[in-house]
Amino acid sequence: MSRLSASPQPKLSPEAQTVYDTVTASNSGLPSTFQTLYANPLVGSGLANLHSAVSESGLESWVTYTVALTVAHERENQALWDSMEPLAREAGVSDAVIAGIAAGTGPRGLLPKEGIWVHFAQEVLRDKMRNSTWQATNHLAGDEGAVALAFVTCYYDMMARLNKTIGLETA
Predict the structure, then answer these.
(1) Higher pLDDT residue, 27 or 85?
(2) Confidence of residue 28 (pLDDT cuts 50, 70, 90)
(3) What is the spatial distance between Cα 67 and Cα 124, in angstroms, rounded to a whole number?
């Protein structure tokens, strides 16, 4: 149950309202989170900008959603998982990857080109980034992609933590 007394109804400029409408749409992946975060419009709009940066990071959407699911599993955040799983499937994340992450066995048993994203996100979340993992990721995605992957992992980690802090049952 949300710790906020009511769903906020922010008073926004027309430009800010457009952003709000985008991030609270059901296909944004985090509509309830953003509705709640806009209780403080400055915070909500700042995080909406980060949400846009995730979309524009240059990572393929299936990689982004693989990372989001990894974060949801590692942080035991069912709301984030439930929100991201349909988007991951739509983006082409394989059943094997989804099942491996859900079971906690990923990256073991996954193809290397799929497992590396899970492994990278796990190491970010565990504060144990090894040089070999960074180099493997950099080999596949370059400096720009490795930085984007670290950012996307940290973004979804932050959103998962905010969901739990605020007491949201849906993302």
Answers:
(1) 85
(2) confident
(3) 11
Tokens 């240059």, located at residue: 58
Strands (E) located in 3-135 = none
How far apart are the two ends of the chain, measured CA to CA in Å?
A: 12
pLDDT value of position 16 = 87
* Structural domain boundaries in the chain: 61-162
Does this model's pTM top 0.85? My answer is yes
Phi then psi for residue 76, to 5 deg, are: 50, 50
| Structure token digits, residue 74 | 């590692």
Question: H or E element: which one contains 62?
Answer: helix 61-74
Question: CA gyration radius for the chain?
Answer: 16
Cβ count near 11 (within 10 Å)? 8
CA distance 83 to 144: 27
